[in-house]
Amino acid sequence: MLSYLLEKEFKQIFRNTFLSKLLIVMPVMFIIIFPYVTNQEVRDVKVGVVDHDHSPLSRRLVEKVGASPYFRLSDVSATYPGALDAVAEGESDLVLAVPRGFEHDLVRGEVVEVLVAANSVNGTRGTLGAQYLSTILSDYSGELREAAGAVPGAVLPVFRTETGFRFNPTLDYKVFMVPGLLVMLLTVLCCAFTALNIVGEKEAGTIEQINVSPVPRALFILAKLLPNWIIGLLALVFGMLAAWLVHGVTPTGSLGTILLFAVLYVCVVSAAGMVVSNYSNTMQQAMFVMFFFLIIFMITCGLFTPIKSMPDWMQWCVSVNPLKYFVQALRLIYLKGSGFAELLPEFAWLCGFAVVFNVWAVWSYKKSL
Amino acid sequence: MAAVSATHLSKSYGKVQALQDLSFTVEAGELYGIIGPDGAGKTTLFRILTSLLLADSGTAEVAGHDVVKDYRAVRNVIGYMPGKFSLYQDLTVEENLHFFATVFNTTIEENYHLIADIYKQIEPFRKRLAGKLSGGMKQKLALSCALIHKPEVLFLDEPTTGVDPVSRKEFWNMLLKLKRQGITIVVSTPYMDEATLCDRVALMQHGKFLGVDTPKHLMEQYPETLWAVRSDGMHRLLGDLKAYPHVRSSFSFGAAYHVTLGGEGNPEELKAYLETRGHTGVEVYAIPPSVEDCFMLLSKNTGDER
């Protein structure tokens, strides 16, 4: 009986022109294309230069900035207000102003002030750009100090900050995003498929026919959920392969732990989809309700912005967001190589969600009749 | 033994009383028609009898099983065809039939003899998706699916609504055949002409049965003589009929008005009256009442009580 119910579900999924295409398109979008899109690295920041000094040293500074892959010299103005006008017109994002006497002061070992002004309409671009620029400036001053240090008797103290990034040494944004995108893929796929599936039977009226048959309810629900679990896990395998082949992102931790978490998580989201479909009468309604919750869950799950930087009350609310725990777990496994023992809290939370949503799903299914 | 028995069934949706203290029995092997307009409560009644809905009060038994306590047993012995076409549109004819055979723990082969007559007509299209069938063929497939597990009682909720007249006739012929095989059939329909084919009909309105009887007896019991009235100006005629003091009831029925006369009224006088009102080609003749006439009379009487 179960095998026949499953056969029917798969036939329906593959005959549905829209859903079967979605099955292919969604993993491709999420894992192959999105990591390029959600990249938050700042490149090609347009820099306007105001050089009041016109000395070899100031020219070297400007060349150094222009040689960086992050910056592009876009404007050279004679005066600072002129450079600001260029910012206003969108010609440049940053202004680097070199004061008169720059070389003179530098050679004499005095403190030199260089002005960096950033257009922060696009906050990330402005602040990150300004940060990159300061890094270049301090590098430059370091170089000059070293050069000066070679002169006997003029030993100057040299400070150098060495920042090492652990677990993602090159700060590659993709390494950080891919696990999160895998979570999103599983969530949207499993939740949407389950929600639409049952409400679809309601809309077609076929659920009545099933209900007057002696098929036990649990079996019917299982036959609805199993294909979604299988689809979800296949999508995960595809996603992980694509992440490896296209982006070279592989998990540091064990595949077994990932699979364990994925199975658990798929149980949670498909049950959540069931709950939505039990309370909806039409596919339209189910879609809207689902997307309302999905958007909230996705924005607050810590994928795009760190949860720690949210207000305290929001952090409390977020602790009932199942996505948060799966994102956390998957990132820790992927980047840090955490084992099961370290992920116990996440595992416990997800188990809790699985129980709550599945009980709710069965209960509301009975209620909806 | 009664195939279906209901006692004091009531169900309301908020303020709307869908069923009001309804009691009736259907004998085994009977073709039982429930006739009533939209909103009479027919579908609610079917859903309670097929264990899909709980009544607010009252009990019902189908084939000796209580629809609430023994709902599992009930589901094994009934076939239900809801008003809306509700098979899988994205499965083929054959797959639908196979699916419903499987969920009822049987096979197509086992009960093929029951559906052979009906299924043969759609078998040439067995590889076609159910959603791409014509209306009449959909009904045949739905009936096949409802029959595949050899039910004792068949519930058909408005099976012929939206089906062309030829297919309707065919469909009723199939029902009569099934009846001969000993299956109890409870069928609802808004079409009064189909009622004459039933063994007994219940006239339903506002969640109540107005009367239950054989179609023949219902018509014989019609208390008055029914007159059909026609003229060349049919549109104007209804107003003039209503203005005539001795006309008790009149309503449009196909190409004529069905009229009952009270007290002093007689057809010759009516004819003369209409001619004085400028009607030409006036015809007044007695006709045997139909089930619809009985329904109109009964619903008019209960309307007066309110």
The assembly state of the depicted protein chains is heterodimer
Mean pLDDT of chain A: 82
Summed up, the helix count of chain B is 10
Number of structural domains of chain B: 2
Distance between the termini of chain A: 23 Å
Report the major sheet of chain B: 6 strands, mixed
- The Rg value of chain B, from CA coordinates, equals 22 Å
Features:
heterodimer, A: alpha/beta, 4 strands, B: 306 residues, Alpha-Beta Plaits, 2 domains, 6-stranded mixed sheet, 10 helices, globular
Describe the structure.
The complex is a heterodimer of chains A (369) and B (306). Chain A folds into 2 domains: 2-38 and 170-367, no CATH class; 45-149, abc type-2 transporter like domain (abc type-2 transporter like fold), CATH 3.40.1710. In chain A, 67% of the residues lie in helices and 6% in strands. Chain A is built from 14 helices and 4 strands. Chain A has helices at 2-15, 17-37, 56-67, 80-88, 102-107, 123-149, 173-204, 206-211, 217-247, 255-279, 283-299, 312-318, 322-336, 344-367, and strands at 45-51, 71-77, 94-98, 115-118. Chain A has a 4-stranded mixed beta sheet with strand order 2-1-3-4, sandwiched between helices. In chain A, strand 1 (45-51), helix 3 and strand 2 (71-77) form a beta-alpha-beta unit. The longest helix of chain A is centred in the middle third of the chain and has 32 residues, at 173-204. Mean pLDDT of chain A is 82; it is low at 152-160. Chain B starts with a strand and ends with a helix. In chain B, 35% of the residues lie in helices and 28% in strands. Chain B has 2 domains: 2-214, P-loop containing nucleotide triphosphate hydrolases (Rossmann fold), CATH 3.40.50.300; 223-288, 2-Layer Sandwich (Alpha-Beta Plaits), CATH 3.30.70.100. By secondary structure, chain B is of the alpha/beta class. The chains are: A alpha/beta (369), B alpha/beta (306). Chain A binds chain B through residues 1, 4-5, 8, 11-12, 15-16, 204-206, 208-215, 369, and chain B through 50-53, 72, 75-76, 78, 80, 82, 84-91, 95, 98-100, 102-105, 129, 145.
